[in-house]
Design a protein that fits this description.
Blueprint lengths: L5 H21 L8 E2 L6 E2 L1 H17 L4 E4 L14 E8 L1 H6 L5 E8 L2 E9 L4 E6 L4 E3 L3 E2 L16 E3 L9 H14 L11 E3 L4 H10 L4 E5 L3 H13 L3 E3 L14 E5 L6 H9 L11
Parallel strand pairs: 3-4, 10-11, 10-12
Antiparallel strand pairs: 1-2, 4-5, 5-6, 6-7, 7-8, 8-9, 12-14, 13-14
Helix pairs in contact: 1-2, 5-6
């Protein structure tokens, strides 16, 4: 098999993302017509399924030897392999989508040896496109290099940080307890053992949260429970923007793309490792998601 042409793949994924954006904008979803998967906060629409079908069919036609991992066609036990693999989340932010909240995107990644090397994320509601090829930088709308600040400020600790988090669809059990107790510690005053972060933010899309960190508009994103298709594209965008990805569980400096817990940190001349260790120190318990 010939080595993949990453520029060609990048350009083709952009074309698919734009087509998907047209489908998303043309849809008329609602909380009444949406179906649920695991529970009432884990939604899927006909548009999710139609977009993934369009993407997977197009990719298999053009790249028949490459693997495909998509949210709507995933089966339990499927794992990311070392083979060239396209990873697709047709609509990241489906809950936002059905409510008309405009933080919605298609996320298209390409991995080699389980490492994201191409990422394309497109929000059709704001016409914002994030892209990256490993070794060639990250961009917003083709010409704006990420991060947005040419000289990012140092990271000086959680008390000066804007932190992205998500509630997720698991609303009970060990993982829920880890999230909610840690959220409380991040927000609490230092006098009672908290971090007193500037604030917590939830865009409702893992891909867009991570792109916000890549852009430098958020400092940190701590997440668990999402999947490879939520983070693969944004992973390479963040890394190419000078950011750092580690495990959401303390101690994991070498996370796996399908490891299901993540901590993303923006580019900075100093303070990245220190803020990772500070946040890990506030995590109450340990995530136990199955891959």
């Amino acid at each position: 098999m010939a080595d993949p042409n990453l520029q060609e793949i990048h350009d083709f994924l952009i074309d698919l993302a734009k087509k998907a954006g047209e489908m998303i904008l043309a849809a008329n979803p609602s909380t009444i017509t949406a179906d649920s998967k695991k529970n009432s906060s884990d939604l899927v629409t006909e548009t999710d399924q139609a977009v993934e079908e369009m993407v997977s069919t197009s990719l298999k036609s053009r790249y028949p030897d490459y693997e495909f991992l998509g949210e709507e066609t995933y089966k339990p036990g499927m794992r990311l392999t070392a083979s060239p693999t396209f990873i697709c989340d047709p609509i990241d932010g489906t809950v936002n989508f059905v409510h008309g909240y405009p933080y919605v995107c298609i996320s298209l990644g390409f991995t080699l040896h389980k490492t994201p090397v191409v990422g394309v994320i497109y929000n059709p509601f704001t016409a914002t496109l994030y892209t990256a090829i490993k070794g060639h930088g990250a961009f917003m709308n083709f010409t704006t290099r990420l991060p947005l600040k040419a000289q990012p400020e140092p990271l000086t600790g959680l008390s000066n940080a804007l932190v992205a988090v998500e509630w997720g669809s698991d609303r009970s059990g060990v993982n829920w307890d880890v999230k909610t107790r840690t959220f409380a510690k991040l927000g609490a005053p230092k006098e009672v053992g908290g971090s007193m972060v500037h604030s917590l933010r939830s865009l409702g899309s893992a891909a867009l949260n991570m792109c916000g960190v890549a852009a430098g508009t958020m400092d940190v994103y701590w997440e668990a429970g999402c999947w490879a298709w939520d983070v693969a594209a944004a992973w390479v965008i963040l890394k190419e923007a000078g950011g750092l990805v580690v495990d959401g569980n303390p101690g994991g400096w070498q996370p796996e793309v399908d490891g299901r817990s993540y901590l993303a940190v923006r580019a900075a001349p100093s303070g990245q490792r220190e803020i990772v260790e500070e946040l890990w120190g506030q995590v109450v318990g340990r995530f136990e998601y199955e891959s």
